[in-house]
Amino acid sequence: MRFHAALIVLLIARTAVAQESRPPESRSASAFDSAAVAKIIDEGTNRSHVMEILSWLTDVCGGRLTASPGYKKAVEWTRTTMKEWGLANAHTENWGPWGRGWAIRRYAAQVIEPVPFPLISYPKAWSPGTSGTLRGEAVYMEAKTDSALETFRGKLKGKLVLMDEPRQLKPHFEPDASRLADSSLLQLANADLDRPRRRGRPNFPSDFRRLMALENKKLKFCIEEGAAALLSVSRGDDGTVFVQSASIPTDQNIQRDKRAHVYDKNSPEILPQIVLSAEHYNRILRILSKGLKVKLELNLDVEETREDSVANVIAELPGTDLKDEVVMIGGHLDSWHTGTGATDDGTGVAVCMEAMRILKTLGLKPRRTIRIGLWAAEEQGLLGSKAYVQRHFGERKAAADSAEPKTILKPEAEKFCVYFNHDNGTGKVRGIYMQGYETLRPLFRSWFAPFRGMGASTVTPVNTGGTDHLSFNDIGLPGFQFIQDEIDYDSRTWHSNMDVYDRAQEDDLKEAAAVMAAFAYNAAMRDDKFPRKGQ
Ligand SMILES: [Zn+2]
Q: What's the start-to-end Cα distance of the chain, in Å?
């Protein structure tokens, strides 16, 4: 995609103004080795490994739920592969405590009466198994209030309980994928607010807290009443099922970050929890509404392991005269379990690994060390990257003399330069979010120059959240995430059973790997480290 001619003029004019007002030394600070970047683009475009890396991660390792066998396989595969490429210091760094590993060994679900049909459905992560085949009647627990809930007392024993209202499905007039229009990119570039970008994810209803409390009561009620399993309806449709963790009953009065987790070693006993495609969930409800009985059969066999800690994977391309300083790139190695974590975040891992491979293969000698971090448990709250940042760079700690926590930095933070993250699906890189580092605009603009023809050049003051660069930002270190096109992501692959290799777009990923390699290399070569906020 190319910019409209008028927009090009406008953008050039903005750059010219910015360049005029800068002193000469900062102009040279924006310079980069364009011959090296040309080689990076050539290697990344013409001899790419990015799809092969992704196929190993997704097809062979499979879903990579944190601490699952698939996750551990991916830890081993990424570490050994990077070692074989000749990267230095390829190793794992364990952190904890964690709790339980979990994976599906076998799963089948089906309606057997009044008419048999297999169910498009998946167990929620860390759900217990059914100890053999479970047969039972479906009951729709329609309860919007506490008193309505009481009417189900004594009626749920051995039943498979449908927990949600039916979902009305509508035709799709919006495409699953779209490229960011020039007008949207221009809006991002010109935005003057330091406001977080909102993704197109579900809006929370105004009585969210009441609904959460009711959900929690329903969960406890079904356990007390001896129900056999809980069935819920997926968001989305067309047979796509979006699935995350099983819910555990929680005390709503306990502060959110102090509550137990379903993956903890001693997490409370729960019932098997299954998510059904909207079409199949609705069908069961329609049959029930005719006064007919619906019988189901469920068989879930899970593998559970005790995992005291989980691993991040780290590898390096050593620097030269500034080798003690470090530029980092990364994405998260963990995923959800129903697909193969292709776009969340297999693509980010493949892009970063490919960037490291490109730099190593070309024999480039960065001044600073370039380090890749592949994080565990992003899906449980950026936990792997947080643990890494805390161990190496510092943390925010409650302070006796102020209400605000204080940032305590470690000596390694002095040597830290910058972190670039990739985690917004397969979509083409279109630019970068500045995360409040406005002084970096001219630098980033110049680094995007070789990628302008590919459609990547927008530098926006708008911030983005939701992923591992925040772990660095939290303690005041510069960490960035790229602007990407929305390709099948929120609509289709994000946390769904359709998050699979086939949804990854080869050309977009080749470009992303070249951008990542170039940004890492440029950062590793400049005279100055990256500025910290306020500098
Ligand atoms: Zn995710």
A: 35
